[in-house]
Amino acid sequence: MAYLTVRVTPSEGRDSIDGWYGHALRVRVSAPAERGKANEALIRLLAERLEIEAHRIRIVRGLTTRNKLLEIKGLDDIRDFFPPG
Length: 85
Description:
The protein is an alpha+beta fold. About 15% of the residues lie in helices and about 35% in strands. It has 1 helix and 5 strands. It has one helix at about 35-50, and strands at about 1-10, 15-20, 25-30, 55-60, 65-70. Strands 2-3-1-5-4 form a 5-stranded mixed β-sheet, with helices on one face. A hairpin with a 2-residue loop joins β2 and β3 (about 25-30). It is globular and about 30 Å long. The two termini are about 25 Å apart.
């Protein structure tokens, strides 16, 4: 199991992973931050990039904030997918 800290920017017009922002991975999603839409878009984007099923990614902390801690089941080291900049 791996943990990943992300900083999400909702309503950006595009979905992208922009690299590291301090200790967190910066992610932009086009979905608005309402009714969990941005969280769903974040999980879909990361699952696609990691080539895993979305249900293996869980938001542990930060459901309603930009800074989130994610738990990713089935991965030991996330740095292979998102190397430090």
